[in-house]
Design goal:
By secondary structure, the protein is an alpha/beta fold. Helix content is 26%, strand content 35%. The protein contains 13 helices and 24 strands. β3 and β4 form a beta hairpin. The longest helix is centred in the first third of the chain and has 16 residues. The radius of gyration is 22 Å and the shape is globular. The protein starts with a helix and ends in a 6-residue tail after the last helix.
């Protein structure tokens, strides 16, 4: 039985994320979609004509594309409900001292400044539609690394942005990629010069604060030949009775012999639709690693992808989904082999509890000529009660004979013997179950920096409140 001390602690932990900040917004669009909103956003930002043209083209594509009829139920999603742009501050601060106190307090509660001081090479924080603060340690600036928000990149590095935007995720890739392309705001732009090894992570933190907001960050990461970079993304939002929409697009370019890692721990509130497109292009001898954690939103569709276009390119996607009451995750991964001797590994783990549903949807595609390609997919699902659900939807499109493809999937439940053993050692059933779940997720957790692994274990413990059915 949980003590009063335990209950108070858990309440405080939940309050860490489920709070709102009273803000007098500097700029706000009207509710709903329209060309006038696109033009207003572009005017607010003072964008060049080519970016406005990009947005208007994307809006036209979005209007013509049908809604997906597979995955999570998007029937209740009404695009006219949302605000597509809300700016919390008149301009972005370069010094933490210059951030308005209310916003500073928000990120202090979330631990961002402390994380920056202790663990990070640089940090970018976004409140609603715009970045409010960013910094990069001088030692990395001296190496020629660029780490700025996307709006700054459009102004200061327009040629680099034009060269890369929508090259990995085209405007018409899917309806939500088109939506993001029309209304994008914020996100990160990272450029790592050839041979530079960024030894500690860069982090972006995205916070939805306003009610009925659509957040559409756009992120581009370019790892030049022989470089190495790790980018960590965190996401939270308070719980509202009305829906919120998060539709991000991430494009990553991993050049010859480079290595890039992208780690996400998504802890949106359950009123959020999380509909994200993430994709990396990997050149010869390059390697891309996605580490993707999903614990919060009510509806998620997300499929991190690697396009292996250079010989011996390698991609790994390690993902978890923890679906509780009123949550449905349709998540997975894609690996597309375009060149010889490319390799991919997909390891997906899901947990379903309290009538939650976590589905895996994946694609392995091997094009003609990709001889010697190797791909392995492993999907493990853990059901914590009889009412919860899980399904696997693997798709294999193999157009070459000389390849090796493996796929395995398991569905299991918590062992009564394991529970009995741990409870005999003095643990409550709830704590014993949480420990078993942490063990199930250990391959994911061990890929995280220590401080983020601790954070994830704490979030898992919160998700496990109420034990097993």
């Amino acid at each position: 039985m949980a003590t009063n001390h335990d209950a108070l602690r858990d309440l405080k932990e939940q309050d860490r994320y489920d709070f709102t900040t009273e803000i007098e917004y500097a700029q706000t669009s009207r509710r709903g979609i329209g060309e006038d909103v696109v033009r207003q956003i572009s005017a607010y930002k003072g964008e060049p004509q080519w970016m406005l043209d990009f947005r208007l083209k994307a809006l036209d594509v979005f209007n013509r594309m049908p809604m997906p009829t597979w995955g999570v139920d998007l029937g209740p999603l009404d695009f006219e409900e949302f605000y597509y742009y809300m700016r919390a501050t008149p301009e972005k601060a370069r010094s933490w001292d210059d951030v308005p106190d209310a916003i500073k307090d928000t990120f202090e509660k979330l631990g961002i400044p402390e994380a920056e001081r202790k663990f990070l090479a640089g940090v970018e924080t976004q409140m609603d539609s715009e970045s409010v603060y960013s910094s990069l340690k001088e030692e990395w600036e001296r190496h020629g690394i660029i780490f700025v928000d996307m709006d700054t990149a459009v102004r200061q590095y327009p040629d680099l942005v034009r060269e890369h935007i929508s090259k990995v995720v085209p405007i018409g890739d899917n309806k939500f990629a088109a939506l993001n392309s029309a209304f994008w705001s914020g996100g990160s732009f990272v450029y790592v010069p050839a041979g530079v090894q960024v030894e500690i992570p860069l982090q972006a933190y995205f916070r939805i604060n306003a009610q009925s907001l659509g957040q559409f960050e756009r992120t581009i990461i370019i790892a030049e030949e022989g470089s190495n970079v790790h980018y960590i993304e965190g996401c939270t939002a308070p719980q509202y009775t009305t829906a919120a929409l998060h539709t991000g697009v991430i494009e990553i370019f991993v050049k010859r012999g480079a290595r890039a890692r992208y780690t996400t721990i998504q802890n949106w509130s359950r009123n959020v639709y999380n509909l994200v497109t993430q994709r990396a292009m990997v050149w010869e001898d390059g390697a891309m690693f996605w580490t993707d954690g999903n614990l919060g939103s009510g509806r998620t569709m997300k499929y991190p992808a690697v396009v292996l276009r250079g010989e011996r390119a390698h991609g790994e996607i390690l993902s978890i989904a923890f679906a509780g009451r009123d949550q449905h995750y349709d998540a997975g991964a894609k690996a597309i082999h375009l060149a010889p001797h490319t390799t991919s590994l997909i390891n997906s783990k899901s947990i379903s509890k309290d009538n939650g549903r976590a589905d895996y949807r994946g694609l392995i595609k091997v094009n003609p000529g990709a001889v010697g390609a190797q791909a392995k997919v492993r999907c493990d699902a853990l059901l914590l009660d009889p009412e919860s659900q899980t399904s696997t939807y693997p798709y294999m499109d193999v157009q070459e004979d000389d390849v090796k493809i493996e796929h395995e999937a398991t569905v299991s439940k918590i062992s009564e013997d394991q529970l009995f053993y741990l409870m005999s050692r003095g643990l409550t059933e709830e704590r014993a179950a949480a420990m078993i779940v942490s063990g199930f997720l250990e391959p994911f957790i061990k890929e995280l920096p220590m401080e983020y692994a601790v954070e994830l274990n704490r979030l898992i413990a919160l998700q496990m409140e109420g034990g097993v059915g």
